[in-house]
Amino acid sequence: MSDIVEESVTHKVPVEDFATDWDHTDPQWVNDPYPIWEDLRERCPVAHTDRYGGGWFPTTHEMVSSIANDTEHFTSRMVVVVHNKYPPNFIPAPIGGAPPITSDPPFHAIARRVILPAFAPGPVNALEPQIRALCNKHLDQMVGHEFVDGGTDYAQYIPPGVIATMLGFPSEDEEIFRDIVHLVLDLIDLPSEVRGPLFEPMSEYFTKQIDDHIENPRDDLTSYLLNVEVGGKKLDRQHVAGTMVLVLVAGIDTTWSAIGSAIWHLARHPDDLARLVNEPDLLPVAVEEFLRFYAPVTMARLVAEDHEFFGCPMKKDDWVLLGFPAANRDPKAFENADRFIIDRAANRHAAFGLGIHRCVGSNLARLELRVAIEEFIKRFPKFELADSEGVTWAPGQVRGPRHLPLRILS
Amino acid sequence: MKVRIDPEICQGQGRCFSIAPGIFDFDDLGNGVVIGDGTLTSDSIEQARLAQLNCPEHAIFIEE
Ligand code: HEM
Ligand code: SF4
Fold it and tell me: Which residues constitute the domain of residue B30?
């Protein structure tokens, strides 16, 4: 896959002014977006671009919240910015290709209700021993090495294992899951003729899993989705497949990025690391600050109809990049917004979104994040960055370290 | 003093029942609910306030 991709990556013009030409795949943004957002927030709170067919990027908490709560003027039909807003076989609003994240009211509530019980605290908390065991399996392999990679040796393995169990997919297919995530979330800048065909193996994989579950139903989310009835009718197969893709994509890269960012922070802040090692009870509070400060997920909307937004003339089908991470750094919404405060008591962060699309998986994400950090620092109470140049960041709308070279200190 | 959650506003962010499990609980869908009639004691009021300050949706109300 990577050959085709490398050949066709458009050599694009570097951004000079993010206010009039933003691009979230520009290396400057990928490596360190925070100064860019801060500058925009002060200078021009809604940035614009002609790239990707045109779009806006509002940077304040107030704006992000008002868009997330306005499903009339902003549709979720597509939530990842790509070049083609009407891909072949697209499924129109209010259902969209991956319900409920691509759905608008009133259908959204139906699709969301279907999956909520599976992610409620009860069933999710039951997964804790499995998550802990998974973390330790990978930590066992890292022990004894002075140099490890917090991303490729650890963070990347935790969420796929959990999601494979939930969906009832073979855990040895992890590599396939990461390829799927990479395709949906990272390879967004490909021309659509190149991007389109890359989806075929993914559809085939899901078709195979669904067929297998129809033949051999079992106690997992896939069988549940295939059998659940809404208003006396089963969900259609396309809906089931869309929701499965959603759970896979939304559940893997996001949490992997959050775990990676937390470890990245601790590697560079020995005082915070020591505090967590000595006060493990602080971890749930610290997790919320990791989520605020390094919020991994930026979403998107399409403008549903022409209207004016905070003075900006928005046109139907313009993109809106919905920066929950930028909202989390807005000084109007958070005291000392630009400081990481490990025991921040009041923390209304928006890392999981706001309004009706608020992350369904947040209980699971918090659990994975807490357990993954807890086990990591239990095993390695002292570590530092081995090579800050070697840290690489995922491009696009989910931000987290991919390579995270660490030196374990004794 | 009493605490209540507005179910129209709550999106099940889950902060309330993690912070103050004695005051809040969750339903089958993971949305926040108040335990009992929500009457706060001088001991529980601070916990309820803390939960309120952490609810991203501003769905928690404390009333005289
Ligand atoms: C730290 C990890 C995570 C973060 C930061 C995160 C963030 C988000 C955000 C910001 C949204 C809102 C989307 C929007 O407004 O368009 C969302 C939605 C969603 N997330 Fe997560 N997520 C995480 C982990 C997970 C996990 C582990 C799962 C499931 C296994 C999951 C499943 C979902 C689903 C199904 C939705 C769609 C909800 C809807 O449209 O009603 N997420 N997530
Ligand atoms: S913290 Fe707020 S949004 Fe979350 S469950 Fe409690 S009341 Fe609902």
Answer: 2-63
Using CA atoms, how far apart are residues A226 and A229, in angstroms rounded to an integer?
9
CATH 1.10.630.10: does it fit domain A2-408? yes
Can you name the residues that pair with B26 across neighbouring β-strands?
B32
Shortest alpha-carbon distance between residue B56 and chain A (Å): 4
How many Å lie between the centroid of ligand 1 and the Cα of residue A408? 32
Residue of B6, B17, B27, B29 for testing the chain A interface, max A β-carbons within 10 Å: B29
List for chain A the helix, strand, coil content (%; round to 5): 55, 10, 35
A322, A351, A346, A352: which is closest to A334 by C-alpha? Answer: A346
Among protein residues, the one with the nearest Cα to ligand 1's atom 2 is A255
Whose tokens are 């840290």? That residue is A391
Read off the pTM.
Answer: 0.94
Contact predicate A29/A4, CB 8 Å: no
Q: What is the CATH number of the domain that holds B39?
A: 3.30.70.20
Among chain A residues, CA nearest to B28: A117
Query: Residue A67: nearest ligand to its CA?
Result: 1
Note the pLDDT tens digit of each residue in A271-293: 999 999 999 999 999 999 999 99
What are the φ and ψ backbone dihedral angles of A57, each rounded to 5 degrees? -140, 95
Of A119, A352, A354, Cβ closest to residue B30: A119
